[in-house]
Write a structure and sequence with these properties.
Layout (H helix, E strand, L loop, with lengths): L14 H21 L10 E2 L16 E2 L2 E2 L1 E2 L2 E4 L2 E4 L5 H21 L5 H11 L1 H5 L2 H4 L6 H16 L9 H7 L4 H17 L5 H4 L5 H4 L18 H4 L2 H10 L3 H4 L4 H13 L1
Parallel strand pairs: 1-4
Antiparallel strand pairs: 2-3, 5-6
């Protein structure tokens, strides 16, 4: 038996203090593994030190398990999503883009031998899943990385429709009933908000949001809108806790009162395509 994908998270303002705490906790974990007849592969065990983008630490603490030093990494894959030590999504988006480019090349080489419907099916099988997986987590981000991914997606759409290199893709997305990476994110975030506002999610997520009418008792035009927490940093601005209410508040009333989540997704998908 093996202890697979076990993660430990600790935080402290002082790097020496957190290193001491980590080593103490790892000693307890190692003992627990042995008592439960579990085997820990130290060669596959690593740690990552998260820090502010502007305040990177040059010191690498000594983290050990059974007196064996474990490796420090700058990025790691967590449940299929690549997380780096700066908490940006550039590495994950770049990996997704590389996988998409490889499969777009495959589609391009065989497109002369298959029908248009098969090309769309190949896109939905080989390309689109990379865009959809955990999109709600990594696609709420600023910068050029997501735009490069969108350019890659447009290349895929032009490939399966035999369009020119600079052909306008908006009508192509609409014709094929395919959402762009940006619209996939909107759909996933909006669906998450629908679940939170209708108590379909665990209480932790539902309690993240509240109406303005709960914050103050004044009757205003915004009283039935979701309250947006004050924020000043991009890392907060581009999180579902801030972006989610902003998106939800911008939706038409007919969508907000959809009878169930499936109807909501269908209506909002149609809204995005149109």
């Amino acid at each position: 038996m093996f202890a697979y994908d076990t993660n430990l998270f600790l935080t402290d303002k002082n790097i020496d203090s957190v290193a001491s705490t980590v080593n103490a906790e790892l000693a307890k974990i190692s003992k627990w593994f042995k008592l439960n007849k579990l085997s820990l592969n130290i060669k596959k065990t690593s740690f990552i030190l998260f820090n502010n983008k502007r305040k990177s630490s040059t010191a690498s603490p000594d983290i050990k398990i059974d007196n064996v030093k474990i490796e420090e990494v700058k990025k790691t894959k967590f449940l299929g999503v690549i997380i780096n030590n700066k908490l940006t999504w550039n590495d994950h988006i770049q990996t997704v883009r590389q996988k998409m480019q490889k499969n777009i090349g495959i589609i391009y080489r065989i497109r002369q031998t298959v029908s248009s419907s098969v090309l769309v099916m190949l896109y939905q099988t080989l390309v689109h899943p990379y865009i959809e997986y955990c999109n709600i987590v990594w696609a709420i981000c600023p910068g050029t990385s997501l735009n490069r991914l969108f350019a890659c997606q447009k290349r895929a759409i032009r490939t399966i429709t035999y369009s020119k290199v600079r052909a306008h893709t908006t009508p192509l997305f609409h014709r094929l009933n395919i959402l762009s990476v940006h619209d996939v994110n909107k759909l996933q975030v909006a669906s998450f908000m629908y679940g939170a506002m209708h108590d379909l999610l665990p209480k932790y997520f539902c309690n993240m949001f509240m109406l303005n009418s709960v914050i103050h008792r004044y009757f205003t035009r915004q009283c039935n809108k979701v309250h947006i927490t004050s924020h000043r940093l991009n890392i907060r601005r581009f999180s579902v806790q801030i972006y989610g209410p902003k998106l939800w508040n911008s939706l038409p009333p007919t969508l907000l009162h959809a009878s169930n989540i499936f109807v909501f997704k269908r209506l909002y998908r149609r809204h995005l395509l149109e």
